[in-house]
Each structure stands twice: as C-alpha cells, then as structure tokens.
From TrEMBL:
Keywords: DNA-binding, Homeobox, Nucleus, Transcription. Residues 139-196 bind DNA. The chain holds residues 2 to 197 of 256 of the full protein. Belongs to the POU transcription factor family. This is POU domain protein. Residues 137-196 form the Homeobox domain. Transmembrane segments: none annotated. It is found in: Nucleus. Residues 44-121 form the POU-specific domain.
Amino acid sequence: AGPDGSVVSTPAHPAHMAGMNHMHQAAINMAHAHGLPPHMGMNDVDADPRDLEAFAERFKQRRIKLGVTQADVGSALASLKIPGVGSLSQSTICRFESLTLSHNNMIALKPILQAWLEEAEKSHREKLNKPELFNGAEKKRKRTSIAAPEKRSLEAYFAIQPRPSSEKIAAIAEKLDLKKNVVRVWRTKSLQRSYH
DNA sequence: ATGCATGAGCA
DNA sequence: GCTCATGCATA
C-alpha cells in the first residue's frame, strides 16, 4: 500500500456545479485492507488509534469556540494553500467531527484540519492583541448621532446665544448629556447649514 | 445531520 | 463493477 498523499480535492467553485470535485482515495493509503493490524511502518507520526477520536472532539470544540461553522471551515481550507487541498463541504467537516468518515479518510483529513485549526487560533489570538495596540487610538469611531429632541434644544440655545463661550457650551453639553466637543461641532455645522 | 448521487481509481 | 471520498439537497 503506497501511501502517497493527496486526498482532498476541489480547486473548485464552492458555490456552483454539483458533483465535480473528487480525486482521492487513490491517494489515501490503503494501509491495511481489512483487519490487518495497524502495523506496517511508514505511517506518519500520526497515531490513528483513538487519537482521532480525541482530535475530532477537540477540533469541534475549538471550532465552535472560534465561532466558525462547518461550512466556514470547509471553504477556509482552500485559503490554507496546502498543495493538493481545496475546499471541502460542510458535509465532510460534519462527518469528520462525528467520525463518520472512513478510517483512512479521517487520517487523511486530520492533518489538514489540524493545520486549519492552528491557523485559525493563531489569527484569533492576534485579534486579541492588536486591539490593545490601537484600540482607543486608531480604532474607528462611530459617527455621532444626535437625537431630534437634543437637536431642537441645541437650535434653541444657539438661537439665543449664537456665540457661546466655552463655559456656555460646556453647560449646554452637560444639560443634554453630550460631549462638549459634540456640541461645539454641531454648532459649527449648524452655521454652515444656515449659509446654504 | 444524513440519504442519495457522482465520479475517480482500481481490479 | 466495486469501493471510496465528497457534495448537494433536505430534514
């Protein structure tokens, strides 16, 4: 039995074309056909006994923790850029997790999914670190929106006091529970509008 | 999650 | 022809 390598396929288009991604099994090493003890050297460092079971379970748990669906994993595999590996369907990922694939198939897919998992967790960690670096700074600020009632109040205030002092603005901001800068900027925009 | 279908490679 | 991996469609 010559284990060779490629198992997965599909360079394919995830969205369309039914049935047209296959190549495989030929690849899969047909180690022992039936009943042959798991001997024969040359198998990866991957132990296939019940490690598969353990891995499949860990895989599923971690995947879920990452908030990734089976379908997501399947399509993400393509971006993994592993030689003969393309995308896989949600079905296959599901079957892997539930150990309902053939033993050989499980063994073939394990390293691939393991690679994906490592990548996914790596980039996930980055997302937790980066925010720190420029969270309060470079982070996108949401556009400020002022509710109608506040707008009316602002209109009224500035109608009476077109050029309020910094203290006045601060007082208005306090009353309306807005940032002082928000009030100041709103007034400026208001003036611009009135010129139109 | 799973039934059914498909197509590849092999014997 | 048979086995196997895999996907679509659907429950």
